Amino acid sequence: GTGKKRFEQQIEKLEVLYPDKARGVAKFDVPMAHMLTAGADFMLIPSRFEPCGLIQLHAMRYGTIPICASTGG
């Protein structure tokens, strides 16, 4: 993982409760990121600092709704 352990544990609980609807991926892999983005209904991007975030542009390209924080940049 690359984030706080408590958040990863919360995602793991959601995976158990909703095995066919929730999935968490704690490591970054480019091909997997494209597949997840293309297959998602929405993407949560709670960045605190993002001077030029491309992930929301990728999400829009695939028709996935990006839900972002207003960080400026």
TrEMBL record:
Recorded superkingdom: Eukaryota
Name this protein carries in UniProt: Granule-bound starch synthase
Source organism: Aphyllon fasciculatum
